Amino acid sequence: MGTGQLLSLRAFEYWLTSYRRVWRGSAASSLLNPVLYLTALGIGLGKLVNHGAHPLGVSYVTYVAPGMLAATAMQVAAFESSYPVMASIRWTRVYHAMLATPLRVRDVVAGHLAYVLTRAASVAAVYLVVLAAFGTLKSPLAMLAWPSAILLALAFAAPIMALAAWAQQDSVFNALFRFGITPLFLFSGTFFPITRLPEPLQWLAYATPLWHGVDLIRRLTLGIATVGLSLVHVAYLAALAAGGVALAQRAYTRRLVR
């Protein structure tokens, strides 16, 4: 393991140590949320929805469950890479303390990203266990839904970290969650096929990272994924993640290096 990787691990260790103080509360919600969502959708709303009303021909809870997994990975990544980043620059100045050690900007970015992905990975793992308990995993390919959710989390976390490092006020996050995360959650194929949307909105939805994540994970859990389309989804999310990492490093350097 190289020196740079060791330094990144030091930054990651800080975030992991901080999380150990509050993990019990988030662990409870991470377990209860998928159970409550899938129970409500499967036993409640699912009973009112015609199972043949969407093109995949599966029960509503089976259709929605992988979308909820993808949406949760997005939400965890968005939260962990927004306010904590700004706090570490402006209020607690944790990043400044890190940079007073041998850590470099890229180590700070990599360490925080590693923590965000660890949080998303743990939540996604719990979701997959619950999905299996509800009988919504229809193929061994569902095992690939876990790394797919992590990639989706990275595609959101890296650009949002760049935004958080660039922003001067936390009001930007109100706009991000109100006009970005929430509409994506509702209109990117999580609860219904985007073909039900007006055509201009369909093309807009196709361009969103959450739709790519939802469609990839849904097809994997149902066993209908194709190599070509899966590679398109992965390439899109990987490109967004790579661009976000580059932007984050630039934004961090601008704010933290004098």
Quick synopsis:
The chain is mostly helical and 258 residues long.
What does this structure look like?
The protein has one domain (3-256). 77% of the residues lie in helices and 0% in strands. It contains eleven helices and no strands. It has helices at 3-19, 23-48, 60-80, 83-91, 94-99, 105-133, 145-166, 171-187, 199-206, 209-222, 227-256. Helix 10 (209-222) packs antiparallel against helix 11 (227-256).
Q: What's the helix count?
A: 11
The rounded Rg comes to: 19 Å
Mean pLDDT: 89
Distance between the termini: 30 Å
Secondary structure: helix percent: over 70%
Major sheet description: none
Order of helices and strands: HHHHHHHHHHH
How many distinct domains?
A: 1
Structural class: mainly alpha
Please name the defining characteristics of this protein:
mainly alpha; single chain; 11 helices; 258 residues
